[in-house]
Design goal:
Blueprint lengths: L5 H13 L1 E4 L7 E4 L1 H5 L1 H12 L8 E5 L2 H13 L2 E7 L7 E8 L2 E8 L9 E9 L3 H12 L3 E10 L5 H9 L3 E7 L1
Parallel strand pairs: 3-4, 3-7, 7-8, 8-9
Antiparallel strand pairs: 1-2, 4-6, 5-6
Helix pairs in contact: 1-3, 3-4, 5-6
């Protein structure tokens, strides 16, 4: 699926039409792109969910949504694909035991977690979903975390890929040949 398919065109149109641009946030010189209006619009949300689901490469058994907007998107994509959804949580939100993966942010480090008990992820084919791809650190951590649990991440789908931050290249270097797809440039 790409922007040339009907779901891709509809999603791109909704993103372009509804995304709120905020100058000088969170710092001077940065234009923040707020997807809240896209997700709050029923037709926009439906188009984004269909577009993200279109990136599922072959059969997937599970959709993993990254904290926090990835939860919203992942749930919709999972319903669209008739699969389950797994919330990839920030550290400290799940009871033990958990699988944990640390990653570097521009201002420090953080961790993502998934349950280490109650789920058998061995060999499960996973579509990883998030709202925005920037530097790639969060997505790389999610892929590593899923692999640690025995899952097989097969594709990564995001609503928007921010230009010039190197996220796609970082993912390709760290994760190998997992397909990375975005509905819109940022």
């Amino acid at each position: 699926m790409n922007a040339q398919t009907q779901p891709g065109r509809e999603a791109l149109s909704a993103i372009e039409r509804l995304t709120r641009k905020v100058a000088d946030f969170p710092a001077p010189g940065i234009q923040f792109k707020d997807l809240s209006p896209v997700l709050a619009d029923a037709a926009g949300l439906r188009a984004v969910i269909a577009g993200l689901a279109g990136f599922a490469e072959g059969d997937v058994d599970l959709v993993a949504g990254i904290d926090a907007r990835g939860f919203l998107l992942g749930s919709g994509v999972a319903l669209h694909l008739d699969t389950g959804v797994l919330a990839v949580r920030k550290a400290g939100k799940l009871p033990p035991p958990v699988f944990t993966e640390a990653y570097t942010l521009e201002y420090g480090t953080a961790c993502l977690e998934i349950p280490a008990d109650g789920l058998d992820l061995a060999g499960v084919r996973v579509l990883v979903v998030d709202d925005v791809l920037a530097t790639g650190g969060t997505v790389i951590a999610a892929v590593n975390l899923l692999r640690q649990a025995g899952a097989v991440p097969v594709a990564i789908a995001v609503v928007m890929e921010l230009d010039g931050l190197g996220g796609r290249a970082a993912i390709e270097q760290a994760c190998g040949d997992i397909e990375v797809s975005a509905l819109a440039p940022g």
